[in-house]
Design goal:
Elements: E1 4-7, E2 10-13, E3 18-24, E4 32-39, E5 46-52, E6 58-60, E7 68-73, E8 78-83, E9 92-100, E10 121-122, E11 126-131
Length: 132
């Protein structure tokens, strides 16, 4: 069974930075999509960023464009979310997720940040707290 383990969350002041990591135990499909989602209590899960297996296609939610960067190190089965200029609104539980890139075919290979159902494997989450 595929396992995803996030780390790197913590507490920072507004304007600070954090780098989240997601280690994937194995890739069932080497042509995958990977995404970061976040969720706060009482709110719907929100897609933050996605990246395809090649690393060439990334997508960002408007709220994080220019501040967050998604990347990966295939040799380490590890994906990253660099978060800069953090705001209190960024505080949430952050999850990484893996799915098949077949879903992305009709989007020119760009992986979704909207459709959580396209991702079949999820991590347990890492908490990010941002104080003003």
């Amino acid at each position: 069974q595929v396992q995803l383990v996030e780390s790197g969350g913590g507490s920072v002041q507004s304007g600070g930075s954090l780098k989240l990591s997601c280690v994937v135990s194995e890739y069932v499909d080497n042509r995958y999509c990977m995404a970061w989602f976040r969720q706060t209590p009482g709110k719907e899960r929100q897609g933050v960023a996605s990246i395809d297996f090649s690393g060439r296609r990334t997508v960002y939610a408007d709220s994080v464009k220019g501040r967050f960067t998604v990347s990966q190190d295939s040799s380490k089965n590890t994906h990253y979310l660099q978060m800069n200029s953090l705001k209190p609104d960024d505080a949430a539980m952050y999850y990484c997720a893996i799915g098949s890139s077949a879903w992305a075919t009709h989007r020119g290979g760009y992986c979704s940040t909207s459709n959580s159902f396209e991702y079949g494997n999820w991590g347990q989450g890492t908490q990010v707290t941002v104080s003003s």
